[in-house]
Amino acid sequence: MVLEDKIRKYIEELDNKSPTVRENAVMALAKIGTDGAVSAIIGALKDKDPDVRQRAAEELGKLAEKSALTEYIDSLKDEDKAERQKAASHIAGSANPATRAAVPALIAALEDDDEYVRNGAAVSLGKIGDPSAVPFLMKSLKDDWHVRNSAAGALGAMGPASRDAVSLLIEALTSNDKDFRRNATAALGRIGPAAGDAVPHLIKALDDSHLKFGAAVALGEIGAESAKAVPKLIEMLDDMDMYVRSGAAEALGNIGDKAAIPHLTKTKNNEENNKWVRSCASEALRKLEGKDAAPPSSY
Question: What is the pTM of this model?
Answer without folding.
Answer: 0.75
